[in-house]
Amino acid sequence: MAAALEQSEWIYAKTMPQCPHWYTLRKKWSAPAPFEELVQFIRDNGYREKFGRTWFTRLDVNNFKYWTMGAPLPATILINRAEIDRPEPYDVIAPIYDSLWSTPEAEAENRAVIESLAYTEGSVLDIGCGSGLLLDLIQPRRYLGIDPSSGMLDLLKWKHPLAETVHSTFEAFYPGERRFDLIVGLFAAPSYVEPAALARIPSLLKPGGRYFLMFYRDGYEPETHKAAGVEIPFHDWRRAAKHLPDSQVSEFGNFVVLRT
Ligand SMILES: C[S@@+](CC[C@H](N)C(=O)[O-])C[C@H]1O[C@@H](n2cnc3c(N)ncnc32)[C@H](O)[C@@H]1O
Q1: Which of 120, 146, 226, 240 is the right S-S partner for 166, CB 3.0 to 4.6 Å?
Q2: Domain count, the chain
Q3: Closest Cα to atom 9, ligand 1: which residue?
Q4: Confidence tier at 165 by pLDDT (50, 70, 90)
Q5: From the CB of 148, is ligand 1 less than 6 Å away?
């Protein structure tokens, strides 16, 4: 369903430049799923968001959000979409992020993580890729980094202009048919992801593929939060472990690693 949304024909809504968005019309619908099923999919899986005085049900797919005006299904004639541009907590941290981790101790820890990953070849999905730490240390030929923070992604793009990235949370990330040999989430990026959403990680792996996910350990106060003076809520790693029951659990400094 998510792929069908992406494949449709989207027309820019010229009459509303103050609120840039695109729309697709029922009468021109050509995507490989019935129009009404798509509308229902948005309504069943979306979240409520207020715009002006009206509440809408919106569904995020990669870097776009989709919504309809809320008329009954037979009377719904268009689906809207707009780029997601909501501010993210890590946008505030981005300007100082790399400098926080440029001490010899931090660099040694980064190298130790990469060694522990034991990456040799194959495609990599980097969840919460941030400013591109993984690419600073290894250069997989097939790499996809996802992150909801445009501030962090801008840094990654500046250092690694050719890297493929998607501006999205993992919860809203739909890679279509694409599957990966290795899925990583370094230095607690997966702690910010809704634990139930992590359950689909094994299904995004190629046969024989593996994952390596780092979470904040109990009681740890993230240095990034302290340095930037922000408090960003994150989840207990045990909740993620419940959704990834085949994981091996180990400790690494201030982190707990779930891996296969
Ligand atoms: C501590 S940083 C780690 C960045 C990078 N992996 C590293 O090791 O340097 C956490 C990253 O997770 C990202 N993040 C936060 N919520 C996320 C979500 N729901 N899905 C994916 N990434 C998320 C943040 O924007 C941030 O870039």
Answers
A1: 146
A2: 2
A3: 133
A4: very high
A5: yes
Reported as a pLDDT band with limits 50, 70 and 90, residue 1 is: confident
**What pLDDT was estimated at residue 7?**
81
Q: Is the CB of residue 181 below 6 angstroms from any atom belonging to ligand 1?
A: no
CATH number of 230's domain: 3.40.50.150
Burial letters 141-170, b for 16+ CB under 10 A, else e = eebbbbbbbbbbbebbbeebeebebbbbbb
Q: Over the stretch 90-130, which tens digit does the pLDDT of each residue have? A: 999 999 999 999 999 999 999 999 999 999 999 999 999 99
* Residues 173, 185 contacting (CB under 8 angstroms): no
Show the domain range for 103. Answer: 89-259
* Nearest-atom index, ligand 1, CA of 224: 1
Residue 77 has pLDDT above 90, yes or no: yes
- Say if CB 48 and CB 55 are below 8 A apart: yes
User: Which residue among 83, 104, 135 closes a domain?
Assistant: 83
| pTM of structure | 0.92
Residues 8 and 70 in one domain: yes
Closest CA to 34 of 79, 82, 81, 80: 79
- CA–CA separation, 95 and 256 (whole Å): 26
Confidence of residue 140 (pLDDT cuts 50, 70, 90): very high
